[in-house]
Amino acid sequence: MKLTFLSLASGSSGNCYYLGTDTYGILIDAGIGVRTIKKTLKDYGLSFEKIIALFITHDHADHIKSAGVLGEKYNIPVYTTEEVHWGMNKNYGMTQKIYQSKRVVKKEETTILRDFKITPFEIPHDGTDNVGYYIEFGDIRFCFATDLGHITSAVTKYMSMADYLIIEANYDLEMLRHGSYPPHLKSRIIGLNGHLSNKECAEFLTSIYHERMKYIFLCHLSRDNNHPELAFKTIEYSLLQNDIRVGKDVELVALKRSHPSEIYFFE
Ligand SMILES: [Zn+2]
Ligand SMILES: [Zn+2]
């Protein structure tokens, strides 16, 4: 079985990721407009009509902008925890509220959706509630964790099981420290319920690396406090210090912020 992966957008201006089989697909987060989602899928030969579900990580605007429209206008079921649903429907960033398309998942409980087994797990962040997703598809084990304040035992548990990982590498600490953000925002980002730095991400990935691991995608890179090359180099260097060679032992990709990624096939 083959799984198609595409990052439509990644970062604080919008997040949306596609995972698909030969016949249908799912989206994780919908922080960009429906028109952009449709156009991007089409550009890559993927079908918007064959999206069977949308999974939401948390209720910040950069993850939910078009969730209501996808659910209510296009009848795509919207899956997330009860608390995230509540937070989304109170968020002004999502003008269309979710009613009939609402589907509830629980942390640590696996939802089976055709060929996918999807398990949400707790993520420390400052949304109303926050989850990552561990997704099994045949032998493929995929794990997604974004907007990740710090590494917890739940994050370690699910990320360690995965062969394909998407993980936040939000900021470079020095860039953030010397950057123009106001002090309260800097503290929020660095805080335990904020975002993950390149260095934290690097140390974590190095600590959980195993031989089955195939791909690491770095997501949600800050526009102001990070560079794709810097995030890549920081993680590559940390892995190499432990004899893990990028390009040989594992593939590493820093996802673009406002442009779609290449299309990837997992098997
Ligand atoms: Zn975000
Ligand atoms: Zn967030």
Description:
This protein is α/β, with parallel strands linked by helices and 267 residues long. It has nine helices and 14 strands. It has a seven-stranded mixed β-sheet with strand order 6-5-4-3-2-1-14. Strands 7-8-9-10-11-12-13 form a seven-stranded mixed β-sheet, with helices on one face. Strand 3, helix 1 and strand 4 form a beta-alpha-beta unit. Helix 8 packs parallel to helix 9. The site of one zinc ion has 7 residues, from helix 2.
Average the pLDDT over all residues and give the rounded result.
97
Poorly predicted runs are none
The major sheet is characterized as: 7 strands, mixed
Find the CATH superfamily: Ribonuclease Z/Hydroxyacylglutathione hydrolase-like
Helical content (DSSP H or I, runs of 4+): 25-40%
Q: Assign the structural class, choosing from mainly alpha, mainly beta, alpha/beta, alpha+beta, or little secondary structure.
A: alpha/beta
Tell me the span between the first and last alpha carbons: 6 Å
**Strand fraction:** 25-35%
Number of structural units classed as domains: 1
CATH topology: Metallo-beta-lactamase, Chain A
Bound molecules: zinc ion
H/E series, N to C? EEEHEHHEHEEEEEHEHHHEHEE
**CATH second-level architecture:** 4-Layer Sandwich
Please count the beta strands (DSSP E, at least 2 residues each): 14
Summarize the structure.
With 267 residues, the protein is α/β, with parallel strands linked by helices.
